[in-house]
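Bug #77: duplicate submission created two jobs. Keeping one. Sequence:
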Amino acid sequence: MSVLLALFLLAGSLALNAPAAHAGSLGVGYDIGMGFLGAYNTDVDGRQAYCADLDADSPFAQTSGPETITSLDSLSRQQLAELNYVLDRWGQSGDANVTSAVALYVWSVTSAGTYNSHGMSGDTYYVGRAPASERGTILANLSTMRQQAAVNAVTDPSLSLALDMTDQYNGTLTVAAHPDSLTGSASLTNAVFADGASTRNLAVGAHPITGTPADGVPSYKIGASMNIAAAGYGAALDLYTTPGAQRLVAAVAGSSTGLSASVESPVIDLDFQPEISTQVASRFVAEGDAFVDGLTVSVSKGTWIHLDGNPVEVTATGTLYGPFDEQPTESDTPPAGAPVAGAETVTLTGAGSYSSPGTIIAPESGFYTWVWSIDKAAHGENAKYLTDSFTDRFGQVAETSVVPFQPVTVSEADQRLAVPSDALRDTITVSSSNGVWLKKDGAHIPVVFEGTAYQVPGTLPPAQNTAIDSNAVPLGTVTVTADGPGVYTSPSVVAPSGGFVTWVWEVKKSSQPEWVRDYLANDWADDYGINVETTSVRWPITVTSLMREYNVHPDGRAFDVATVSGFPANHGDFTGDGYWSPDLDVLRHTVYGPFATDTELTDDLDLTTAPVLAELTTPARNGVYKLGYTDDDKIVPTEPGFYVLVTTFEGDDRVQPYQSSPADVLERFYVPPTGTEVPVSVITQATPEAAVGEPFSDTALVQGTKIPDGAYLVFRAYGPHPAEVGAVCESPFFVSDEIPVTQAGIYHSGTTIAAEPGNVYWVETLYATDGDVIAEGKCGAPGETTVVTEQPEELRVKTNAVPTVVLGEAAHDVATVTGTVPEGARLVFEAYRQHTDEALCTAEELVFTSAAIDLDGPGDYTSDEVIFDEVGTYYWVETVIDEDGLILHRGLCGAPDETTIVTPVPETPEEPGTPGELAQTGADGNWWPLGLAGGLIAAVTGGVLLFGRRLAIARERTGYVREEDEAFEEFKAQFEGAKED
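Kept job's structure:
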């Protein structure tokens, strides 16, 4: 029945296809006369086929086919599959040993009964058709074919594909095939294999793939297809037929042998992940300027999705944290409680560069750092297109801007009041005026503050101003390096000779280390003339006075002439300004006594318990004051003893306190007991201090009612000796002339100088005319030592101008130079006429400039004489310059002792009369021998002596003279006349 069905199917196939008929012929094989063994040429399609019927005739007639069949006679599907396998692998061979083995294999399956009907193995029987030499090879090939077919032949080959996506882009293509040795070409749509190709030859197994959707699409599918040329697999054969002859079989050929499969993924919804990196537009942002951040947007996953041709809009929020006092430490999140300066948003529409809007203005100093974020949940329906939210790290240097800080200081002078040569310091409290003081590497950024101490022009306190007075003289500049906010004390500047000194502090970026400058906002300087930054270096005053006579009888009168200098010219006029107190315009002259002996009159005398004879006052101004000449201020001792006049100034904010010494021999007088004689004695007073090269001297007060005729004084100076050696008076380096002493009075030694420092000890000796010693001082006696000091290191200049001249008289200035004088230094004097109460020394007031004077060391230097052509006040200013023209020193405009007042020419005075009431001074009216004569002798021996360092250059000042004192002018005229005689 099956045979009939097969024949029926074959007939139908032939009828439908009607293939062209061709004659078969022998192909590759052996024909040695035993029968043909090998393949036949079908001559239909050029293929080799094999005989399936051992007992049929050879197929040399018209052969037709091929027809693909899935059954043949009673063969099983496995047998068909094994035949198909062997015919495919070896059937088209050109090797006769191979085709012979194929022929034997086919016969052994399709004609098994006939094949094995010869009483032996069909293999042995039919291989005899081949040459004997080839039979072993043929049988070996046959064995191999049978083994391979049994293992590899399959009845139903298959191919299937599966796609498995692990995420939106990554997955695997799984190939399943039967047999699993099949390989073929696979192609992907919207994806690539691991090597980046979309087509690849694959074997059975799982193969990684990566999706490649088109840019911007919200979703896509991945497709895969595969084709395998599965020739030789399956239970099928190609059949060729020849009427009345053998049937020929071959492996199924052509496209009918291929397997194919395809697969497509479900719709894959896409999203993308935008990320942001930033770089601030400027590392340093000035206070009040905008913070601007530059954003670089990239996509770390997918591509930016577009909907209806438009990109999905993504909102990025930038939060600016700050201020911090230093660069914050980088971290994943801001620290708890981190201050926020503001926030801004930027709409992102794709990868690229963006800038923040710049709406946040820098409020104060500090470090400010950006943190940018994208909140997925805030994007509504479009949130599904975002993979996740995004936040960058906090504290990144590239995302941090710095607002520089402004270091400032509030200062207060350590000394409100000082004296010349004091060390002036300022205490500064430094801070940042615009926020925090910035730090670097955990430490405050150091800032150099420069403070300049200026001597204020004139003698009045400075007015506060943002600009520095152009006439202010810089005394020195110091620096303080502040390593953070706090309180610091400046180095010192030496106080000048007098006047107001005010500090001006500043911060200059150019003075800072280069790495510091960008962290500072601007240069800064405080005001000039701030009261708490100002020190009054109080002027020292000098009062030189002389009692008109030394011996005064009980109920007689004593007279004193006091010369006051050192007050500012406008002293008494300053009424205060709320910070600086007004001038104290009172000098007190107190006569203390009587004292039993003059040994009580020492510097240590307790004046609070000392007896007081009289108290007089005069204005605290420069000038010559006559004391005791009127009934209102008369000095009348009533008891015998020693008396001394002490001048006191309590001091104010511009002038130092002053008190003359109770030991001053020039301010003493003596009231002897009635009918007693005063023994001859000598009291001396030496210049207490002088610098090397400066003149100094000794002065003696000779006392006694009976001075031997022909008596004379000799002064001797010993030393200089080191202080620790003590008083040594062996060989004098200075011996004065023999100075005649005719009566009680003041006598001085004349000046000398010392070439080296040390103590100089004076000894005075009063001799009789025959050379006998009447009185002699003791080596090292109190008041008889002059301390000679080294010249100061720094250059110092003290000046004393002629105080008063009559119009038409010449005036000049004298500069005393001490300290180290640089080689080539020169001195120039200038005089400025004053037109207002304010001290002005500008080009408009300049009326005189001296010739330059070469300075060859310390000493006194005198200006040219000048005759001023107008009545008025003139201020002198001295300037020392070095050989390059650099100013080493410049005097203060309006300094005391630097004023010359030009007065009008007086009318011719009348001839002076007799002394009048002054003749009543002393008992019995006999004051002339002791008064006038003593004054004459003093004039002959040097005139009025001025005590203290450089007293010899103090001059009489025009001062306060009361109308009732005019009678004294007549006495003065007589005194001057007597002196000229």
